[in-house]
Amino acid sequence: RVKYCTRIDVCAELQVNVTLGDNFALLEERRRFYKLETDLSARISLLTRDEEEITFEQPVFAKFKNINIGGVLLSCSSYEFQQGDTIMLSFQAMGKDMDIPAKVLRVQKKDGKIDGYGCSFLKPKTWQEEVLARYIHKIQCDQMDTIKNKINSR
Hints:
By secondary structure, the chain is of the alpha+beta class.
C-alpha cells in the first residue's frame, strides 16, 4: 500500500481526475484479500486467552462488519476481547453452518471506544474456504447489481 498526496478534480458526473504528488509513504498492508461489508451474525461459545480455555454458558453474539477470505472485522458489545485471543466463530453462510476458529489480531478503536475486532481465520477447512469464497462472490455480484441499477435509473 502506498499513500500519496493527491489532488482530485471532478471532471464529469461519473469521472474524477486524480493527480498524484511527489510525496508518498509506503504503508503496511494488513490483509492479503479485499474486504467486503456484510451483516452476518455470529455466536462465540469458546475463547482461549493466555492458554486458558473459557466456555461461555450463553454464547456471545456478534456481527461481522466486513469479511474476506482471510478473516472478519467483528462487532461485539456484550464482551471485550483482547488482542491475541482465539475465539470460535459460529455462523451461517450460503445455507451452511460454519464453525471456524479465529485469532483477534487487533482491537479497533474509534473516539476512544472499541469499534470492532480484526480477526484472522485459523486453518479453515477446504470446504469452509469454498463456502466463504462463494459467499464473498455473491456479495460482490450483489454490489455490482446495485451499482448498475443506480446508473440505469438516472
